[in-house]
Amino acid sequence: MIKIGLVGTPKSGKTTVFNTITKSDAEVSDYFSENLRPNLGIVNVADERLDYLAEKFNRTKTIYATIEYLDFVGIKKDEAKKELFSNQFLGTLRTVDALGLVVRKFNLPGIATNPILEIETIETEFIFSDLIICEKKLEIINKNLKHGLKSSESEKKLIEKCYTFLSEGKMLKFLNLKKEELHMLRGFQFLTLKSIFIILNVSEEIFGQNKDLIESISEKFDVVEIAGKFEMELNQLDEDDAREFMSEMNIKESAVKKLTRISYESLNLLSFFTIGKEEVRAWSLQNGSTAHDAAGTVHTDFAQKFIRAERYSFADFKKYGSEKELKSAGKFFIEGKNYIVKDGDIIYIRHS
Ligand SMILES: Nc1nc2c(ncn2[C@@H]2O[C@H](COP(=O)(O)OP(=O)(O)O)[C@@H](O)[C@H]2O)c(=O)[nH]1
Ligand SMILES: [Mg+2]
User: Fold this and answer.
1) How far is the C-alpha of 122 from the C-alpha of 7, rounded, in Å?
2) For the CA of 10, the nearest atom of ligand 1
3) Mutation pick for ligand 1 pocket among 7, 11, 14, 16 (CB with most ligand atoms within 8 Å)
């Protein structure tokens, strides 16, 4: 399951956004912002294609792909520098797949809004946090060298390169590291290597009026604009009423849909489907993955005992209507381990 961490400065509306998309009612208050454990919520990835398949195959269960959201405590300026991030906070934060940075563009009494500064603050904290890791690693390497213990020269060089880049105030994701280098760095779980996107949280009165700001943010990051509090309040209403309020405010896509889309985009994910005896199911997979990877996603055993994958595309299924018709049209394919899975593939894994 994909894990998205909601991060940001205190009172940027992280918990409000969390409540909006998970339809929960975690407390939005100062008290809870002292709570170190993040709020957790799981959200289905809506997909009309899967609904269509459930109906056509007459399956009683529809299992959507899911995203887990973690709503973290606010990050204050200089916290990382002073090594004030708790181990628990950092430990959990480092396990997420992508970071959704919630930025405030609504008024709070006595605090001005400055979205660009908020983004820079969090960037700086993450850079510091990674810098400290590099520093500690280099210390260990140098100490080992002094004691005549050899350590990998290429690793030392790589960490030094990262250290220098971070010292210049830049996130590692912009260093254009090679695949092997990324592999070597995997264990460090650097925050600035993670996918990161911006959730611009605005008050409903100014929704849709932030084009310039969004443009300047998007020079560096993917960004979505949502009216977090407004949409949270809509959770109390039934769907038709909520839709009407949304269209009055000219909000065309719900926050949860936007976040799903941007999560998939920034993690470069696709969806494939399986048709079981009782259920249709959607799975998420990184673009460029193979049929063997897909088998492993469904079940570790299926990857080990992989024989072949039978597959057809959703678009073809819609056109031809049945597996039989797909076969006679030559649109039902038998694939080996190395087949590159496409978005919308319907796959059956044959295994021993
Ligand atoms: N006007 C407005 N207020 C918001 C919005 N989102 C959050 N708030 C308010 O901002 C305060 C902090 O929100 P909270 O979600 O607890 O922020 P967190 O500290 O980032 O988790 C609360 O009083 C919220 O009601 C929004 O989109 N518009
Ligand atoms: Mg909060």
Assistant:
1) 8
2) 19
3) 16
Ligand nearest to the CA of 106: 1
CA distance 285 to 296: 10
> What are the tens digits of pLDDT across the range 129-138?
999 999 999 9
| CATH architecture for the domain at 121-192 | Orthogonal Bundle (1.10)
pLDDT value at residue 34: 55
CATH fold of 288-351: Ubiquitin-like (UB roll) (3.10.20)
Question: What is the location of CATH 3.40.50.300 in the chain?
Answer: 2-44+67-113+194-266
Cβ of 15 below 6 Å from ligand 1: yes
Question: What letter does residue 280 receive in the DSSP assignment?
Answer: E
Q: Give the 3-state secondary structure of residue 336.
A: coil
CATH topology for 2-44+67-113+194-266 is: Rossmann fold (3.40.50)
Kindly report the pTM of this predicted structure: 0.92
